[in-house]
C-alpha cells in the first residue's frame, strides 16, 4: 500500500487570551499547543484511529488536515503534494479528494435545506454544474441504504442514525480518497452504532477510501481500524497496529485507557487501572513526561526528562513515549 | 429527623424501599397522546443498586423523573402507584412530596455542566441543600467540606468558595454526587451520571458511587445505556424497551441468562462483548416504534427474530422465571419455562 497522507511534526497553537489580559494577569505565554509535534501517515485504503480523552487534540488534527484550521508549524503532504502552505484556491482540488463527517449529525446538516440540496452541496462547492442533482441524490441515498423519497425530507425529520447516513452520503458524494470521521458513533445507541459502522466498512470495501476515525470508543477502534494512535495533551504517546496495541499496550496511559473499557459482564475479573486525578491543563503542561502526574509507575526521571519515541524491538511500526514501557 | 425503619430488623421480609406498581404515563402532544410508560412494575429493595438500561427513547429517564416528580406539564400519570417507604408519592399532598426531595430522595443529573447554579458558589449551594437539617450554618459548612473531601475534591476548604465554572466536568460531577449524598438520602436516583464524562473519569465516578453507596447504605436507581457500567455497579437490572420493562432480574441473570429476545439482542450488539475482531457488527433490524396511539400485541414483535402468531395479538404479561427474574415474552410460556 502506498502513502496517501503524511503529516510531519504538526503543531497547532491557540491564543488563550488577548494581549491586554495577558499583561494584566502577568501571563508570559498566553498560548496552548492543542497539537504538538504530531507525525503520522495514512496509506491508501487504510483505517487509522486517533484515540484520546476530550481536549487531547484529536479533532484539532482532523480540522487542520482538512484545512479548517491553520497549522502553526509542520507539514501536511497529501498524495505527494505539500498542502499545508497552499492558499484557499490552490488547495481546493486537494480538498475535493478529502471529506469530513462531523461529530453532531443533526447540527452539521443545515435545517433549512432538504436532503436533496444537502447532497448537492459538494457538487456546487466544487463547481460541478453539469450534474443531475436529483439523480446524484438518489444514487447516494441508495448507497447508504436509505429510501429515495428521503431526498425531500428536512434534517429534523431524520432520526440520529438516518442523519448519520446522510452525513456519510454527503461526505462520499465526490468519491474521496480520504474520509475523516469525527466521532462517527457518538450519541448513538449500540444497535444503531453497529449499523453505521457496518455501512462505513462496506463502503470502504467498495470504494477503497482511507478513513481517519476520531473516537474515544475503544470498541469501535478494535473492530474497525488497522492502526491506532493514542493522544495525550496534544501528543502521540503510542502508535501502532490496533491488534498489537490491544494485545500488548506499552504505555501506562494506553493500559489505563484499555482497562477503563468496562466489560459488560458482572463476573468479569476487574483488573482496572484507576488513574489518579484528571488531565492537566494545556496551559500548565507538566515537566518531563507529561503523564507522570497520573502515572503509577512514575520515577524521578519521569519528572525531569521528556521521553523520546522508542520502538518495539520486534515491531518497528509500534512506537511509544515512555521511560518504563511495559 | 431520620428514623430507622423498624421493619428492617424484624424477621419478616421487609417491603422494598421503592415500589412502582402498574405505572402508565402519557405525554400530551399536538398529534395525540404518546404512551411513554406502560404498565411499569419495579421494586428497589433497601440498600441495593438497581440499574435501568435501554436505548434512547425507551423511557428510562422519564421513569426516573416520574419518581422525582420533575415531569413537564404535558405529562399525565394515567394509572399506577409509586410507593416510597410505604407511602404513595402520587397521592400525597404536593408539599409533603416536595419535602422528601433533597432529604429522603435525591438525584444526580446527566450533565454536570448545567446541573449546578452558575451564579452561586459551591459553598452556598451545598449549605442550601441541607435546609432540612436543624443545625447551625457552620456545622453545615463543615459537613459540606467533609463530603467534598470524601468525593476527592482537593483542598475543599479553599475551593468551595469557587463557582461551578472554576471546576472541570469530572470535578463538577463529583460535587453533584457530594451534594446528592450530603443529605444521606434513602434513595439516590442517578440519571446517566457518567455519559458526559471521559472513559477514565467514568471509572473513577463509578467506583466512587459504589463506595459511597456502601458507606451510606442507601439504595440507588442507576439509569444508563452503558451495559458495562451497569454490569459493574448494579445488583438488579431492569431492561426497558419503548416504554415497557421487558425484563428484570438479578444482574447475573440478565447478563448470563437473558430471557427476552430484546435483552439478548441488546447484549449481542455491544461490541465490547465480541472478543473476535470483526468488521460486521450485529445490529437490531427495524426501528423503535412510534408510541402514539394504541398498540396491540408485544411491543418488540416487529423487530423480534422469534415472533410468532400470538405476538401480534396479545400483549405478553410478565412471566416469572426462577426466583428473581421476570420477562414479558410469550415464548417463555410456550416453552414452559415459567415458574409458578
Automatic annotation (TrEMBL), chain A:
Transmembrane segments: none
Domain of life: Bacteria
CDD domains in the cross-refs: ABC_NikE_OppD_transporters
Keyword check for ATP-binding: yes
Alphabetical keyword list: ATP-binding, Nucleotide-binding, Transport
Compartment(s) where it occurs, according to its Swiss-Prot or TrEMBL record: Cell inner membrane
Signal peptide: none
Membrane topology: Peripheral membrane protein
One Gene Ontology molecular-function label: ATP binding
InterPro entries: AAA+_ATPase, ABC_transp_ATP-bind, ABC_transporter-like_ATP-bd, ABC_transporter-like_CS, Oligopep_ABC_C, P-loop_NTPase
Residue ranges of every copy of the ABC transporter domain listed in the record: 5-258
Family assignment from sequence similarity: Belongs to the ABC transporter superfamily.
Record's protein name: Oligopeptide/dipeptide ABC transporter ATP-binding protein
Species whose genome carries this gene: Sinorhizobium kostiense
UniProtKB/TrEMBL annotation, chain B:
Gene3D superfamilies tied to this protein: P-loop containing nucleotide triphosphate hydrolases
GO MF entries: ATP binding
Subcellular location: Cell inner membrane
Keyword Transferase: no
Topology term for the membrane: Peripheral membrane protein
Catalytic activity reported: Ni(2+)(out) + ATP + H2O = Ni(2+)(in) + ADP + phosphate + H(+)
Enzyme Commission no: 7.2.2.11
Positions of the ABC transporter domain: 20-267
Hydrolase listed as a keyword: no
Keywords, in A-Z order: ATP-binding, Cell membrane, Ion transport, Membrane, Nucleotide-binding, Translocase, Transport
Subunit structure: The complex is composed of two ATP-binding proteins (NikD and NikE), two transmembrane proteins (NikB and NikC) and a solute-binding protein (NikA).
Similarity field: Belongs to the ABC transporter superfamily.
Name used for this protein in its record: Nickel import system ATP-binding protein NikD
Amino acid at each position: 500500500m502506498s502513502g496517501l497522507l503524511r503529516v510531519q511534526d504538526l503543531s497547532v497553537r491557540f491564543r488563550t487570551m488577548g494581549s491586554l489580559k495577558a499583561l494584566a494577569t502577568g501571563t508570559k505565554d498566553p498560548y496552548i499547543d492543542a497539537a504538538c509535534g504530531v507525525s503520522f501517515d495514512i496509506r491508501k485504503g487504510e483505517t487509522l484511529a486517533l484515540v484520546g480523552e476530550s481536549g487531547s487534540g484529536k479533532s484539532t488534527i482532523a480540522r487542520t488536515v482538512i484545512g479548517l484550521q491553520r497549522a502553526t508549524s509542520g507539514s501536511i503532504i497529501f498524495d505527494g503534494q505539500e498542502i499545508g502552505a497552499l492558499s484557499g484556491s490552490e488547495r481546493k482540488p486537494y480538498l475535493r479528494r478529502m471529506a469530513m463527517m462531523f461529530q453532531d449529525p443533526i447540527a452539521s446538516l443545515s435545517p433549512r435545506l432538504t436532503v436533496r440540496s444537502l447532497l448537492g452541496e459538494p457538487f456546487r462547492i466544487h463547481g460541478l454544474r453539469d450534474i443531475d442533482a436529483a439523480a446524484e441524490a438518489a444514487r447516494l441515498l441508495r448507497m447508504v441504504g436509505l429510501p429515495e423519497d428521503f431526498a425531500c425530507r428536512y434534517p429534523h425529520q431524520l432520526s440520529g442514525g438516518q442523519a448519520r447516513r446522510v452525513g456519510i452520503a454527503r461526505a462520499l458524494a465526490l468519491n474521496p480518497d480520504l474520509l475523516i470521521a469525527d466521532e462517527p458513533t457518538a450519541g448513538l445507541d449500540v444497535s444503531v452504532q453497529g449499523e453505521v459502522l457496518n455501512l462505513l466498512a462496506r463502503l470502504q470495501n467498495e470504494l477503497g477510501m482511507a478513513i481517519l476515525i476520531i473516537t474515544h470508543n475503544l470498541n469501535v477502534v478494535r473492530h474497525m481500524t488497522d492502526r491506532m494512535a493514542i493522544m495525550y495533551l496534544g501528543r502521540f504517546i503510542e502508535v501502532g497496529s490496533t491488534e498489537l496495541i490491544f494485545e500488548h499496550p506499552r504505555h501506562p496511559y494506553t493500559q489505563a485507557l484499555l482497562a477503563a473499557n468496562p466489560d459488560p459482564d458482572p463476573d468479569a475479573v476487574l483488573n482496572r487501572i484507576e488513574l489518579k486525578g484528571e488531565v492537566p491543563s494545556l496551559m500548565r503542561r507538566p515537566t518531563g513526561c507529561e503523564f507522570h502526574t497520573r502515572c503509577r509507575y512514575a520515577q524521578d526521571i519521569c519528572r525531569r526528562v521528556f521521553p523520546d519515541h522508542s520502538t518495539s524491538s520486534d515491531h518497528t511500526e509500534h512506537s511509544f513515549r515512555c521511560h518504563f514501557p511495559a | 429527623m431520620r428514623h430507622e425503619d423498624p421493619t428492617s430488623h424484624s424477621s419478616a421480609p421487609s417491603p422494598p424501599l421503592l415500589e412502582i406498581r402498574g405505572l402508565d404515563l402519557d405525554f400530551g402532544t399536538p398529534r395525540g397522546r404518546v404512551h411513554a410508560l406502560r404498565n411499569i412494575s419495579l421494586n428497589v429493595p433497601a440498600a441495593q443498586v438497581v440499574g435501568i438500561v435501554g436505548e434512547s427513547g425507551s423511557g428510562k429517564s422519564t421513569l426516573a423523573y416520574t419518581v422525582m416528580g420533575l415531569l413537564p406539564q404535558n405529562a399525565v400519570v394515567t394509572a399506577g402507584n409509586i410507593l416510597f417507604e410505604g407511602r404513595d408519592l402520587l397521592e400525597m399532598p404536593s408539599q409533603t412530596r416536595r419535602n422528601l426531595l433533597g432529604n429522603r430522595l435525591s438525584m444526580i443529573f446527566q450533565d454536570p455542566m448545567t446541573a449546578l447554579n452558575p451564579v452561586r458558589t459551591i459553598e452556598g449551594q451545598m449549605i442550601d441543600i441541607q435546609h432540612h437539617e436543624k443545625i447551625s450554618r457552620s456545622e453545615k459548612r463543615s459537613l459540606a467540606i467533609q463530603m467534598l473531601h470524601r468525593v476527592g475534591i482537593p483542598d475543599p476548604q479553599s475551593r468551595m468558595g469557587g463557582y461551578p465554572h472554576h471546576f472541570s466536568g469530572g470535578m463538577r460531577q463529583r460535587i453533584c454526587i457530594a451534594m446528592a449524598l450530603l443529605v444521606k438520602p434513602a434513595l439516590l436516583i442517578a440519571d446517566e451520571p457518567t455519559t458526559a464524562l471521559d472513559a477514565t473519569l467514568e471509572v473513577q465516578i463509578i467506583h466512587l458511587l459504589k463506595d459511597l453507596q456502601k458507606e451510606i447504605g442507601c439504595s440507588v436507581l442507576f439509569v444508563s445505556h452503558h451495559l458495562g457500567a451497569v454490569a459493574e455497579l448494579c445488583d438488579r437490572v431492569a431492561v426497558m424497551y419503548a416504554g415497557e420493562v421487558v425484563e428484570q432480574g438479578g444482574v447475573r441473570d440478565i447478563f448470563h441468562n437473558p430471557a427476552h429476545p430484546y435483552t439478548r439482542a441488546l447484549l449481542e450488539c455491544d461490541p465490547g462483548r465480541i472478543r473476535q475482531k470483526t468488521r460486521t457488527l450485529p445490529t437490531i433490524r427495524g426501528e423503535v416504534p412510534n408510541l402514539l396511539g394504541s398498540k396491540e400485541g408485544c411491543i418488540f414483535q416487529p423487530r423480534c427474530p422469534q415472533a410468532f402468531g400470538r405476538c401480534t395479538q396479545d400483549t405478553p404479561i410478565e412471566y416469572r422465571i426462577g426466583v428473581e427474574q421476570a420477562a414479558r415474552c410469550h415464548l417463555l410460556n410456550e416453552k414452559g419455562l415459567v415458574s409458578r
